[in-house]
Amino acid sequence: MQRKRIKEVLAAEEPLGEVRVQGWVRTRRDSKTFSFLEINDGSSLGSLQAVYDASRPGYPEHLPLLQTGASVEITGTVVRSQGKGQSWELQVQTLQVLGSAPETYPLQKKRHTREFLREIAHLRPRSNLFGAVFRIRSRLSYAIHQFFQERGFVHVHTPIITASDCEGAGEMFRVTTLEGNAFSAPGAETRDFFGKRAFLTVSGQLEGETFACAFSNIYTFGPTFRAENSNTARHAAEFWMIEPEMAFCDLIGDMEVAESLIQYLIRDAMDHSSEDLAFCDEFVDRGLLERLRLIAGQPFARISYTDAIEILLRSGRSFEYPVVWGHHLQTEHERFLSEEHAKGPVTIFDYPASIKPFYMRQNEDGRTVAAMDLLVPGIGEIIGGSQREERLDRLTGAMSAQGLSESDYWWYLDLRRYGTVPHAGFGLGFERLVMLVTGVENIRDVIPFPRTPRNADF
Ligand code: 4AD
To answer: Does the reported pTM lie above 0.90?
Structure first.
């Protein structure tokens, strides 16, 4: 008999008759003549109630093995349920315990704190919360490909090991095969695996630009790494980024793609992950669905950085970090702009050149660049992007001002030598997107095994 996933059994219009299911026991309740087992196989939030009658083989010998966490295979008949909360239940014919779980199984029925669940990151996918979050994450990943593929973007796999520092911030993990003293010996770099210094990528953008300058529209979707010592709820040392890059596109076109991507993904989640989102709305963040509906339905605000500074200064708020033109916007500023000023997502554009990387297109005012950050309620920045500097002389000027050597970026500069075009792109932090869609407030709880300063367990 072919296995049926529990989602399919629960969603059926008519009882499916004889089925075989496999899964893990969530709970067991006994009466004198039978036991109720809640079986979950990860296909949906909902579990299937199995009724294990005392007349069936293995009863009651199996009971000590059938604790929360045990894995089972059951064949039986699906019938209309007499109980509340479910349409169908499974009347057990045969039950096989594949793996028992003792009473020390850490995920018992009571609700656990997120901190505790991080300590059992190998088991937390079996909890309701992580089931919902990771099914939504999976669907979002699929929808991202769908969005770009429907629009003719080519998916490019940019390298994970790189020699160039895209963001110019120097917050990179070194990749080396040298050990001990060999690492610091003179000329070590030339004896290293690649014959030069190599790092884990912070962004696929620079390589992505080479493909955009051939295919017009491309996107990357891959892991990126940052050795920044930020112990916040929004920063991870390893995270996933989606980076579209579009030739023949300016900053306005870039913003339009960013805004429609976010709205598309939220609508897709509401259409295809409604059960899991309803769970998040009830147990994670009350008001989540209402907020998502608003974001999906209204145009996003756009404010220049200079106007944003004015708004912050006039807000009458006392912020922890001073509001000064030329300084980075801090999370508290970003959240004010989005949550209280725009009351929804807002794109801030035209940032001071001095706080942005070398590759951003210089504006005619001589002090700002064609950058944009998309800020959303509850999180702050979710997207960072820009129009790229396509003029060779301006680009080399910015590089020398930031102390970057032209010889390290010769191939990047070639794009400006051979058929240069206006082009633009952005990076969407995938975990921040999952936080936005699920309402989960800590990045450690939307990635399977979080990597943060002093933490690479599991
Ligand atoms: O603004 P960022 O640094 O932009 C870039 O890397 C550009 N090269 C992207 C491009 O134009 N192709 O990062 C983009 C996004 C941020 O808006 C944020 O959502 C996410 O990546 N991000 C992080 N997410 C989790 N942990 C971190 N440490 C992150 N740093 C950035």
So the answer is: yes
